[in-house]
Structures are given as structure tokens and as C-alpha cells.
Amino acid sequence: MNSKFSAFYNNSRGNIATAAALVLPMLLCVGAYVTDYVIMFHQKAALQEAADAAALAAVKELGLVGADEKLISSVANSYVNSIFNEASTVSGDNTNLKIVDTPSKEDSQVKIDLSYTWTPFLAHLFDYRVTPIEVSATGALAGNSLTCIIGLMQPQRLAKSSIHLDDRSIVQANDCAVFSNSVSRYGLRAVSSAQMTAGTICSAGGVLTLGWRAKAQFSPSPITDCPKIQDPLLQRPAPNVTACRTENNNREVNTDTTLSPGVYCNGLTISGNAKVTLSPSVYVIKDGPLIVKDTATLTGVKSTFFLTGANSVFDFQSDTTIDLAAAETGNTAGILFFEDRNVPHSFDFNPFDLDNLPKDIRVHKISSNNARNLLGTLYLSNSILLVDADAPVADDSVYTAIITGRL
Fold this sequence. Notes:
By secondary structure, the protein is an alpha/beta fold. It has 4 helices and 24 strands. The protein has 3 domains: 15-140; 145-230, no CATH class; 232-407, no CATH class. Helix 2 (15-62) packs antiparallel against helix 3. The longest helix is centred in the N-terminal third of the chain and has 48 residues, at 15-62. The mean pLDDT is 87.
């Protein structure tokens, strides 16, 4: 018996397996604990990135006329979901994300509070604070002046001004600011009896007024050498562009109809005396123009036009009726016309010969004498916006903001 016990006692076979059986659960626990904290670290970093970016982008838009708390809240939510989805280590896991945003027009700030609930392996047994993960970010706007017009274009060989008022043109931007970002001494140009009224008129360069008998008038007098203003919509994500349906290719509408959202390739023309109504959502005008001509009517609410590809410009001719209001939610909230930032474009043109422009110059035209309601922002950073109607434009809108290369 003693010899058998001694043999068992001195037998070393299976020692490693025994030790492993004892240590493995401990190693698994440690591994799960470490994994929990790695996940928590990355998710908190993703949350903070989303909160910071959303607060910064949303507060920039807070300074744009028409950006009320409801719109900014929608924008902030879109930013958070988009950015967190990209940065998160758990793909598409936005269902456990709680967003509390408190935009304040009065205080000119946006506060973003984010809370993310998750299920750790073990960490919550030792520290209840690991879930939910909570972060906060606040963006504050310097100054409290609302902005309604920004001319972004920088001086070119011939075209120097980013805002140009000609002949008898009148711009009324009561209680909000107009900015010309052109640093040329002709950054803001007004000819003959043109008039501009605004809360503030600011030119990064100078101001040029011309006229033999009547001289252009500004109220108040423009401030020169202002700091250039940043594009407040620069971080706004562009809509997705899907395939074009056959019936929407180079489409012309000349009878009364209701259009559905989607991609309209090679342009969309509304003609005759057609009365066309837009169903709410996003309309992508791709590789061709949006033209409303003859005596046609275009109306729509809660809708956005996304303009992408070559020649994706709009042209509202003189006898037409245009009555449009922008989307209220989502990535395009508050934007009536959203021009793709990547469209081919140039600003190298002769401003005194607008009838013979190079093909790479993008010009959006509002000549309609019945375009009284354009509710939302015209975001056309790579283009010229030419307004040459004989009747007031957008004067019935609750607000109309313009961000364009050159007005």
C-alpha cells in the first residue's frame, strides 16, 4: 500500500492540466474585465467625439437666421447618430444611445448630453458606474447677431466681389447680418440706385459704390476689413444619392401632377401651365438642371433639393410661380437647396458679360415674379446666385438664408 501511495504522490503527469483548470477561470475573468474596460474606453471616446462635433456644428448653425431650437435639435440628433455610428466599436449600435440636446437661441449655445447603455461581461459587478457611459459637450456662439446672407467667393481675375447689387436691386435683411468674404477692395459692390438694409453689413475687403446720378445706399454703413465668416453648414452631411429610375431620366412635366422624392437624372423641367406639387422629402437633381418655365407652378413643403453633378443648377423663369418650404427634420433640415460641395465649378468669369459665361461657371437663376415664399436656406457654395426678378422675391417667407459663392 505504501508503495502505491508513494507512486501516486511522486507521479507528475497531469500537473499542468490541474494547474490550468485552477487558473483558467481566473484568467477568463481577468480577460473579460479588461475587455469591458477596453470597450468602455473606446465607446466613451466615440461618444465624446460625437458630442463635441455635434455641439460645434449645431452651434454654428444656431447663428443662421431661421435656425430655431426645433431645427437645431433635429440637426444635433442627426450629427450625433451619424458620427457615433462611424466611431463606435459596436457597428450600428445606436439603439442604446440617449441624446439630450438643449439649444438656446437666447444664450447662443447648444449643450449635448449623451448616455450609452451597454452590458459588460463583469465590470458592472465591481463598479456600477461603468454603465451607462455619459459624456457632455457645450458649444457657444461668439456674438448674438443672426446671419442671413454669406458670399463665400474669394477674388478672381475679373470677378472681385462676392456680393454684387446692380441697377435698382434692393436687398432687405432686417435684423440679421450680411457678410461678404471677398478680401478684395471691391468685396461688396453696389451700382446705381441699389439698396441694402440689414442688421449688420460686413465686408472682409472693401466696398465699392458706383453711379452717375443716383448712388447706392446701405443701411447701416458697411463695416470693412471684417474677419471672414466660416461656412456654418460645412459639416452638414450630404444626402445619399441612389440609382435613377427610368421614368425620372431627363423628365419633363407639362401637366398637373404630384412628384415623388428620388433621383432625377439629366435634369427636371416643368413647363406649360403645369401645377406641380412635391411630396415631402429629398429630391436629387443629378447631371442636369431644374427648370421651371412658361407659366408653370412649383409648390412643396418639407422638401429639399440636392443638386449634384455637372449643370445641376435651377432656373425659375419670369412668369412662373414658386412656393417652397424646406425639410424640417433629418440631415437636410432647414435647407431648401443643398448644392453638392464636390460639383465641378469655377469662379473665373467676366461679371459684366453674364450671357457668355464659361461652361464651368454654375449660375442659379431666380427670375420668377411670383416666388414670394422660399422658406429655408439656399446653400450654393460653388455657384453664382443671380436674382433678377421685377417683383419681390422671398418677401413672404418667415425666413430665407443665402449661403452662396457669389450673390
